[in-house]
Write a structure and sequence with these properties.
Number of strands: 11
Number of helices: 10
Strand content: 15-25%
CATH superfamily of the largest domain: NAD(P)-binding Rossmann-like Domain
Low-confidence stretches: none
Helix content: 40-55%
CATH class of the largest domain: Alpha Beta
Strand order of the largest sheet: 1-11-8-7-5-6
Oligomer: single chain
Distance between the termini: 55 Å
Order of helices and strands: EHEHEHEHHHEHEHEEEEHEH
CATH architecture of the largest domain: 3-Layer(aba) Sandwich
């Protein structure tokens, strides 16, 4: 029997409804969560992504401070804007859309963001707290993956999880989150990557496979066991002349074949993607709540 589809859009809508109610409650206490957004350049994908985030803010009642800077923006100007947001009480979260133009130092830019407003969860201080099991802003995509699992009734505790991918954005933080001694962790985690000798050996024994390699058809049906839960984080463009835009989006998993063996599986698009923006909103609301409690 084919796997049940984990509908990321539906889960994201449920979470956003909860956040909207929380924002309404905060506004009754004269607290309006604010997100400062910085986009440098005119990359179409980044523009589309930032626009979607701004719409999501409006949807649940978060104030969005939109800053779109030209491609030739200097490091000094960019960091100056971040410094201004760091001290602005109306801004609870700061989002610098990545990737940045090549002439800008990405590490220096991310380090300039106050850890208290680092709602992407990329600042070294928040990463360190996450690894140590302390309260911190969690990276949005990994946190979204965990919420998908929990809200789909998947038992994480005691599960064998194989993550295919070791990026700083998904693979590494997700592994750290899943091994924590907490209600959202206690899994046994294996990280695989491009240098793994026998990838199928590892994925076949997994209760949960999370594909985040950035390569289409990395996970095929012969590489998973019956009843596995599959989370596909990958987004890849495949040439398709039948589509108006000339391509279609697929994940890292051979979806049609693997779904015949899996118990649960996320589609691409419509799986993990909607959760990333939602967890950014979650962190922003949480930041506003923390700031209000200090005043």
């Amino acid at each position: 029997m084919a796997a049940k589809i984990i509908d990321g859009k539906q889960v994201a809508e449920e979470l956003r409804a909860e956040l909207k109610a929380e924002v309404t409650k905060l506004k009754q206490e004269a607290v309006i969560p604010g997100l400062g957004v910085i986009l440098v350049g005119e990359d179409p994908a980044s523009q589309s992504y930032v626009t979607a985030k701004e719409r999501a803010c409006e949807e649940i009642g978060i104030y969005s401070d939109d800053n779109r800077l030209p491609e030739d923006t200097t490091q000094e100007r960019l960091i100056g804007l971040i410094d201004k947001m760091n001290t602005d009480p109306k801004i609870n979260g700061i989002l610098v859309q990545l990737p940045l133009p090549k002439h800008l130092n990405e590490s220096e830019v991310l380090l300039a963001i106050s850890p208290d407003k680092d709602v992407d969860g990329f600042h070294p201080m928040n990463i360190g707290k996450m690894v140590a099991g302390q309260k911190a802003f969690l990276p949005c995509t990994p946190h979204g993956v965990i919420q998908l699992l929990l809200r789909s009734g998947v038992t994480i505790k005691g599960s064998d999880v194989v993550i295919v991918g070791r990026s700083n954005i998904v693979g590494k933080p997700l592994a750290n989150m899943l091994i924590q001694k907490s209600p959202t962790g206690n899994a046994t985690v294996t990280i695989c990557h491009t240098r793994t000798k026998d990838l199928a050996y590892h994925t076949r024994r997994a209760d949960i496979v999370i594909a985040a390699a950035g390569r289409a058809n990395t996970i095929t049906a012969d590489m998973v066991k019956e009843g596995v839960v599959v989370i596909d984080v990958g987004v890849n463009r495949i040439a398709d002349d039948t589509k108006k835009r000339g391509y279609r989006l697929v994940g890292d998993v051979d979806f049609e074949a693997v779904r015949e063996k899996a118990s649960l599986i996320t589609p691409v698009p419509g799986g993990v993607g909607p959760m990333t923006i939602t967890m950014l909103l979650y962190n922003t609301v949480e930041s506003a709540r923390i700031a209000a409690a200090k005043t």
